[in-house]
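retry 2 of 3: previous attempt timed out while embedding magnesium ion. Reduced batch size to 1 and resubmitted. Inputs unchanged:
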Amino acid sequence: MTRNFSRLPLILLLLIMSAPIIIMYAFLLIDTVTNSPPGSAIPNAFTLSHWRFLYDPGATGDIWGPTLTTILFTASIVAIVLCIASTAGYALSRLNMPFRRFFLAGVLVMHAFPLVTLIIGVFLVLQFIGLYNTLTGVVLVKAGLMLPFGIWIMKGFYDTVPWEIEMAGVQDGASRFTVWRRLILPQVKPGLFALALFAAIDAWGEYMLPRILAPSSNFEVLSMYLNTVSDPDSTTYNFNLFKSVGLFYTLPILALYAIFRDRLMTIFGGGTKG
Amino acid sequence: RDVTVKVWAGGTSESSMYRIDAIKMAADILSREAAVRGDDLKVNVEGQTWTGWDDFKQAVTLAAESNTAPNIIVSGHEDIGPWSKSGLLRPIEDYVDLDAWPLNQIYSNLLDVATFDGKLWGIPEDAEARPFYFSKPHLKAIGYTDEQIEALPEKVESGEYTLYSMLDDVKKMQDKGVVENGMGFMPRPVNGTDYWQFYQSFGGEMTDKETGKLLLDKQALTDMYQFFVDAVDKGVVPSTYLGTAWDSWHDAVAHDKAGAWHGGTWHKAEWETKWGLKDFFGQIEPTLIPAGNARGRANTITHPLVYLLSTTGSDDDATIAAELISIASEPRINALHAVKSGHLAIGEAEAGVPLYANDRWTTIATEEFLPHANSIPNDPDFGVVWKAMYKGLEASWTKSSSVADAVDGVETEVRTTLGDKVVIR
Amino acid sequence: MQIALKDFTKSFDGHTVIDRMNLTIEDGEMLALLGPSGCGKSTTLFAICGIHRINGGQILFGDRDVSHLPSQKRNVGVVFQNYALYPHMSVYDNIAFPLTIKRTGKTEIDRQVREIAEMTHIEELLARRPAQLSGGQQQRVALARALVRKPDVLLLDEPLANLDAKLRLEMRSEIRRIQLETGITAVLVTHDQVEAMSMCDRIAIMSRGEILQVATPTDMYRAPETRFVAGFLGNPPIVFVDGRVGGGRTLQTERGLRLPLPSRLEGLPEGQPISLGIRPEHIGAGGDAEITGKVVFVEPQGRETLFDIEIAKGTALRSIQPARDDIRLGDAVTWSIDRDRLLAFGADGKAL
Amino acid sequence: MQIALKDFTKSFDGHTVIDRMNLTIEDGEMLALLGPSGCGKSTTLFAICGIHRINGGQILFGDRDVSHLPSQKRNVGVVFQNYALYPHMSVYDNIAFPLTIKRTGKTEIDRQVREIAEMTHIEELLARRPAQLSGGQQQRVALARALVRKPDVLLLDEPLANLDAKLRLEMRSEIRRIQLETGITAVLVTHDQVEAMSMCDRIAIMSRGEILQVATPTDMYRAPETRFVAGFLGNPPIVFVDGRVGGGRTLQTERGLRLPLPSRLEGLPEGQPISLGIRPEHIGAGGDAEITGKVVFVEPQGRETLFDIEIAKGTALRSIQPARDDIRLGDAVTWSIDRDRLLAFGADGKAL
Amino acid sequence: MRMRSYLIGFAFLSPALVVLIAFFLTPVVLTAIFAFTNMSTSTGISGGAYVITGNLLTHLKDEGVPPKIADALSKTSFSVDPETLARAKAAGTDPQFLAEIEKQFSGRTFDDARSFERELKGLRHRPRAIRDLKLAAGQFELSILNARFATAAEARNAIDTFLPSVPAETVDQIVQASYTGWRWTTANFGQLFANPDTWRIVLNTIFYVATTLSFTVFIGLFLAITTFYLPTSVATAFSMLWLLPRLTPIVLYAVMWKWFTWDGGFVYTAAKALGLPAFNYMKGSVPTAWTVVILINGFIGAAFSMILFSGALKAIPVQQLWASEVDGASRWQQIRYIILPHLRWPILFVTSYQTLSLLSSYEQIWLTTNGGPGRTTMVWALEAFNTALNNYTGNLQYGLGAAMALVLVIVGVTLSIVYLRLFRFDELLSRPKIEF
Ligand SMILES: Nc1ncnc2c1ncn2[C@@H]1O[C@H](COP(=O)(O)OP(=O)(O)OP(=O)(O)O)[C@@H](O)[C@H]1O
Ligand SMILES: Nc1ncnc2c1ncn2[C@@H]1O[C@H](COP(=O)(O)OP(=O)(O)OP(=O)(O)O)[C@@H](O)[C@H]1O
Ligand SMILES: [Mg+2]
Ligand SMILES: [Mg+2]
Ligand SMILES: O=P([O-])([O-])[O-]
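retry 2 succeeded.
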């Protein structure tokens, strides 16, 4: 930007508006290492006791099992979304087929319409294929939910790959599949990466689906684990402990985000435009 | 032979873990009995609990649809209606010997509660009362003497002391400054059977005695809604009260910040173990729920949980599960749950178990409240009425609609959904 | 290999872009498809290489009818305007790609890649990524990749459009050299007349999906068959003066201006509408006739200077001459005009 | 208004791009900033209009020091390379924008917009959106918008770069006409020598943030002060031959080749290193000396033909001549060379 | 030839099609189907059985079934006679036990299971396990009550066998009425329409969507524009900050808001210190509850729109901004005349996209106010969810819930189609350039 305008008033205004976020997240950090009761602005003694859940399953139950489950859960979703979205996005962006228009419109409509309200239907489908109350089922549903978005994003990325590369590949004698795999896919790596990140963040935080579709599964994910810690009916409710677990749960996302921020942003710029 | 029996329990917090643990103990006993008999049988129990009811019932229902329901379900007796109708339950009477120990000593009225359509579907797991509580120090602050306080339960029972008397008293407490404004009266903060007690206080009945159909008494409903609106108008409870967190409620009532409230007998256990309540009897006076007006009566509702046998699994599994339920109903084992969680005994013999008999609270509850207790119907359609009733209560309480409109809304909803399956008066 | 388009027709969404075009490219020849933007040059090229389906006619490679074969089976090499190098592969891998696809052996690939790299002078660049190359180098890589599989025909779509002036000059001769060296049949699509004239054996000039003239560059410049062609070639462009044949070998405009007609046009009926094309280099550089006018615009261009001379109200001729600064804006000048090199066109645009 | 840069210095992130540049643009003059890409032309322009802050020195508009004023207060008109029209406004609104900002009255705005639209010949386009205009029309609108507020100076950043060849030719004279008509002081940034030469009163030639020479186009072409300037101007470019002063008015290359030196250079010490610049138009077009060589490249360009003649192994000269096809590749030719128009530079690159 | 290229397209698309059909299309279709049923917990989802119960027969008396027949059908008895003995034998009852039964009780009838079982328990060869005893006893039962018949025919058959004298219409009527599964009905919509509560929720939903949306768009715009004018480092810091709500797992995010607004929470404490009313801001009053709901969702949405707007801002050719500055525009004028017009499409996009997400999202509300206080912040999607799947009474009304969901689906699809038009969908679809 040019420096024809002044900046300080803007920064002040922004700070005021961001106050709730700053406060909430600052105390999220502070409260995990102090004993301040909710609402007290000045933290008292420093303590690591709220982190004892890391080694002491007695505090809130074993956390490493759910952590591992969540990692698996997230990884599977990411893998499925990437595989399917990268092929379907390519088809919609580049390949000749009847009803292409219809498919694309369908993806767009679905993309805009989250499915949680149709959960009974989803339940029946899962039950029908025998995956109700299994993590596999939830993985499939969650991946399915993200697909329209993923396909849409990938289509956007494919659209930016010059046709000439594809034409050159075909001229060089490669089949469309080879062209896709060896020439086009490498061009949309940033898209794949961004989508993977996005899917990972989304899957990592998922709460509704495991809760409804796998309530008693043997594998608990962290969101459900965290919710048991936060149960407002429980009289042992402890904000500080909850926040520690919550922070533990959120850190991977924050880390991913902080490290790959720019890459992640491409998805918002690239995908959701009109 | 290794058999795994799954048990799910709803509305279960740490103090009521014996709902599951009793089954585990039973499994141990059953395995040992088998070993003594020389049978090769090892029974494992997989328990899962939910602290709330919404998630639990959702999970059970969906699991049942996908044939993965647990073998034993611990839920409120009112679920027997819909669940038996949908084929989720086996009638437990086909699996257990009611003439033999320990089931033959269970209170027959509790068994009646677990009976639907002429069949016994579940074995009661606990019983309870849902008393009204007064703060003794605050009563004294507005001029009650010790004797008057002691006489209060009787005055309530006789109908002399009504809900409106209570409103006046807590208002006085607030005016006196011993209770903060808006904390005079602290009803249960969320939906629950308790609210049917107020309906009864104003003369409402849940079933029509003649036809056996569900009954909606508009007058009682109107009076009951009006009562809470009056309470709001008096300033003893906020209009936005419903939905308050349990924690805030526990904190207030256990630390003597409220004037009067109501809850379950089991809450005493929670206040003592989790909220540091030292002198329950010195601080709190329990009574029945007072009558609301001349039409109604002082009452309390017992909402027994029952062990239910699901249709999941083989008949053999069900047989074993049923045996576990029988064993878990042994007085000594069940008394662990009753005393630990502040619930009431399910049978005569249990009342004699020292752990239970020596407990002052359970004794009071059993003797003073249980005789006046009734329960909600098992009718599969009762949930519709209940949901409508609570919606109407929320609407009028928050003043989003007038009492009359709220009652009309309930009537419309119940009538359109259930038609003539319900008698509306 | 000789390439022939027979009644080639192409339409997009029912809109016919090219209607029954016929064109033959001789074996080993480099032919330019020259025309303004949107005239169908790229469409023709894409039809030849099999990216577009043709809607009618035939495309023959030698005797083989390839009209309905997909690109993969046609064996053509294409150099795209933006090179279309595979950005994630090294130069080596880019060039090797067509061979890898054919499952050629490793050592054979290596041999062929190095051979073509040597020919295109990019031996030192093989390890780099396309992004690390200058435009001209990328162009060479694209050329190498197109040639490595020994295609029957080489197609170039505006190969120099993305290069800067200096590189363009250099790559022009470079591409021509390689084409001559390999003896491959080639088609060059361009809208730059200099490119077409300097690189190709013959030029096919196109307008609105039609081929107007096919000829060698010199013939086409000297003897354009139509007014369009005359106007398209030449920089600064030719100036046309419209009028009718007047008394004896002159052109008379409506305003009464008279200009000499080439002697070869004697015998045209008096009064016939005619359009005279005068190239700037034919004014002021000797000749047997003269024109007089006022200089209305002077543009020094370094080596040369461009003048606009108003010879009558509203009619200006253009003259280009070696740089001179003796003439200023507004001067009246009388310059020679080479009447026999003037071009003349009939009302139908055809050369007379 | 006279514009003066005094010791103007600009750095980006500590990296100095322009170091103490001095330049004066006279009132009413149009000056070209000509130089290769990245030499700092745009940077200079942006400093003048206040988009960049300067790191040192002064910028004077007449007597007014504007060095530290924001753009809004400088009263300059700028035409950006891509026109930077506001796509969501009609042409009228685009032009009216600078006046609207100043809260000029409606009728006054209307008068001024129509006046400037007339001058730029876009009266009929006022209702359209920029997207509905051709490149040349957009260019005119941008010009109109820059001029409507009667700026003290008009800055043009590569205004013709995005136009096609024909339009470029046309807009060249158009911009110049408007500049002359308004008499505004103007700075034209370009890397195209023809543009600079044909449009401007003077050219300032830049390289790496430095101004090498400021002169009129003709002077600069004829008498470049440095080898860089000589090489930068001229199309086809000049060819340099390096060597030393040999026996009597000749240049001797290392390989023993001899070339005549201009007569004005008599008296140079024998053996002094020297670089001779030979422009293609000075070979084969008359002159008092001759060179002999073999034609190694022929490029017909329509009106003219370009030849590369190898006069010794590894040394080729270039000649451009009116189109001729009597010479073929490989022919041996002997052509005249105009020795007095040859350019010569010393080892330091300065003209001798 | 052409077929071949189509096949490639479908091959690439098919994995997505499978998943989307399974998890989008089928649920939508199922929801549409359920919406026209009275499906609930007690009817079950996957179908019912035919069960004749005592209560049913009592009820049927009102419906015109002759009391005599009803009473006769509701009889249960255990009878030891040759027929039942043969049945027991066929069922594999221990012969010795059977012999004992025949000897002791032949010709006797018992009125209820318990008395019969008590008698059986006295026999020497009784099975040791009570379950086996009951199974054996069951063979002697004469009753049609409480048996689950899978099909209507079986039920009809059972009645005919049990009481052959019942007229066929009555049998039909009973069998019809005994079906426990769901039935087709359009009552769900009538009920929704008739219920005043529905309209309150509709209003709530409109209010919620409109206010949250405005918050989202305005704050997003404000953030995008301000950060646009700031140095990258500051801009990055703020945009990272504002993205946190979107990234934080919802369970944690909801609780952080509780911490912030709860009794004794941050706002509470701060308000108290400032002498302002201190109470549970999330649930303690309707205006604050709405404010909190809007903020919770608005903060998430603001991050989203900020990113989109920032992207669009970056796409504005910087020369246009320079040009406007050179033309003399102040910052506000630049925003007003150059920047905002550029953001027209992004704003429209955010508006439409967020409308849809807000309409159908409820997790945040569910986990925070849960529609409270009272039902003042209840919105359509949450009510649908509660009706269909999640309520205290456990009375899950799938049919009604599906009807509510269907309304959302229809609204959503309609809006989407409008938006597709609006966004010139055709421009998104370029024709494949390789035609083979
Ligand atoms: N895929 C397509 N769909 C519809 N019309 C097309 C398509 N490709 C080209 N056209 C039309 O066909 C005509 C010829 O296009 P073509 O690309 O061959 O022109 P060109 O001569 O290569 O022009 P340029 O020099 O601009 O590349 C144009 O009018 C163009 O609009
Ligand atoms: N914003 C900037 N930040 C850092 N370096 C810059 C910036 N703008 C220009 N430069 C550097 O300053 C030098 C001069 O750039 P400038 O844009 O003035 O060149 P130019 O002569 O206009 O070139 P071109 O013809 O390519 O536009 C270049 O080396 C460029 O990399
Ligand atoms: Mg083209
Ligand atoms: Mg520049
Ligand atoms: O445990 P309850 O919800 O029934 O009080």
